[in-house]
Each structure stands twice: as structure tokens, then as C-alpha cells.
Amino acid sequence: MTTLPMTAILSDYKPMASFTSPIQLLRGILALLTIPPLTAIVCLSAMTDVRWFRKSKSQAQQFPRAWGRILCRLANIRVRVEGGEQLDQAKPYIFIGNHCSMADIMAFSGYITHDYRWIAKKELFAIPIFGTGMKAVDFISIDRSHGREAVQSLNDAAQRIAEGSSVILFPEGTRSPDGRLQPFKTGAVMLAIKAGVEVVPVGFNGTYQALPKGKLLSRGGEVVLRIGTPLPTKNFKAKDKQELAAILQQRVAELLDECHLPVPSSMEAASISLPN
Questions:
Q1: Residues 49-82: pLDDT tens digits?
Q2: Residue 87, domain member (yes or no)
């Protein structure tokens, strides 16, 4: 139920490193083989639930949540969430996090209970079953091309968020090749400014070690999602996008273990103090 799984994983496959045990190897293979059928089952279940049973897109989020939890358990990825008590379940947020693994999506989908939606490029909504399932649970389509359509798509997404739809974004734009925090792009920041809702920094710790970029099979291990203090964005304007990107990068960095921090030179731009 996310914008991922099989094509993104296979696109940059590299040979798998040795495992600590044959059991973990088997668990990694089982999790990988489970992704396609489980995704189809979850999509069909969500569509059925929304159309014929409870007809609640909010309650149907249990299906992508189950998707994430099942895959994490199969892959021996043990997830712990810290700081979730700071969230107001009645408020919309834009969650902003570092992105270093497909395990980020599995862990966030499975263990963050706040009512939120994923943003997916519009082409994915055309995929049979998968796209229909995303529409059923109200995922947000975004046009990643250039021109008037892309601008309108961004405005529509911002309106959806302002009206109460929380979302999760990865401002680095792609997974980190080494697990370390990369510079934030301003596209996600502009969406936050347009929506005017609070931004919540999230630190994904341990996901790179569990499933590095370019690997097919999980190594397992503990993952910690650290939730930071929500940051208001109403005082930021479009001209402040670089400043806000640097602030958010710093906020996320504060939630990361040392192994995920960028080299010092790349953090210099993020050492901007919050405005009064």
C-alpha cells in the first residue's frame, strides 16, 4: 500500500552480503516473496472494506498497517517508536524523515498509529489493484512532471493536507546510499509551507542496517523511530524554503544515531537557528 515495493527494490539490486545465520536468510527470502501477494491481498481488502462494509477510509488504514507489521515480523525487524506521545491525534501533520531503506516504509506503515496518508506519484494509481487500493484508502496523488499540472498537483495536495490529511515525506528525494542523512530538497518543504500545518521530524534509526539500499533480503535487527517536537510552519513563506529545509534537516539529525549523521561539512548549512 505504499509507493514501493518490488520494482524499486529490484531497480538497484546488488549482491547480498553474508548473513549472520541461515535462519535470517530464510526469513529474508520469505519476506521478499511475501511482498507481491500480501500487497494484492491488502489492496483488495481495503477496497472491499471501503466500498461494502464500514466505508471508512480512516478505519481502512488498518490494512496498510497490517502490511507493514507482517513484513517487519517476517523479516525479523523489531520496531520501537519513541516520542509518539507528542502527537495530537486530532491534528494533521506533515511527517518529515530521513530515508535510507525500504524498511523505512515498512516500519512507518506498521507502527505509526496516527491517521496519515502516503503521497504517491500519479503513475502508480494506474496500476491495476495496487492503484485502486491506494485510491480506496485516500492516498494522495502527485504529478512529478514539470509545468502547470505539477503546480496544480502540489496545490491540491497542500489543500488536502490543510483539510486534515496527515502525510509522510522524505525530503532527501531518494534513499541514502550509505545510511547517512543527505541534504533536504525544497519540494517537500514547499508543500509544508503551502499546507501551513505543523511539521513533525522523524528519525529512522537502524533501517539501513536491516535492509541497505540495493539489497533484496533483510538482515533483521532493531529499528527505532524517534518522533520529534512538531514545528509550526505558518510564519514561513515561499522565500524561506531554503531556511526551513535546513532547520528540518537539523531537527531530523537530532533524532538520529551517530552512524546516520552526515559528515560535518554537509551539516553546516543546517545550523540555522529558529526564528523568534
A1: 998 988 888 889 999 999 999 999 999 999 999 9
A2: yes
DSSP reduced 3-state for 233: coil
Is residue 28 within 8 Å of 218, Cβ to Cβ? yes
Q: Is residue 220 part of a domain?
A: yes
CATH code (residue 73): 3.40.1130
Quote the pLDDT of residue 18.
46
Given a contact cutoff of 8 angstroms between Cβ atoms, the answer to whether 161 and 190 are in contact is no
Tell me: pLDDT of 238 over 60: yes
- Asked if 168 contacts 118 with a C-beta cutoff of 8 angstroms, the reply is yes
Query: Whole domain around residue 143: which residue ranges?
Result: 5-270
Provide the domain count of the chain.
Answer: 1
Contacts of 258 (CB under 8 A, 6+ apart): none
Q: Considering the domain boundaries, does residue 276 fall inside one?
A: no
> Taking 80 as the threshold, does the pLDDT of residue 29 lie above it?
yes
Pair 219, 74: CB distance under 8 Å = no
Measure the CA angle with vertex 250, ends 246 and 251; round to 5°.
115
In contact, 62 and 46? CB cutoff 8 Å: no
Asked whether residue 275 is domain-assigned, the answer is: no
The per-residue pLDDT for 247 is 95
**Strand ranges (E), 64-220:** 77-82, 93-97, 116-121, 140-142, 166-169, 198-205
Rounded to two decimals, the pTM is 0.85
Sequence letter at residue 44: L
Q: Residue 238, CB half-sphere, CA atoms under 13 Å: how many?
A: 1
Is the separation of the CB atoms in 143 and 122 below 8 Å? yes
Taking 90 as the threshold, does the pLDDT of residue 175 lie above it?
A: yes
CA angle 208, 210, 211 (to 5 degrees): 65
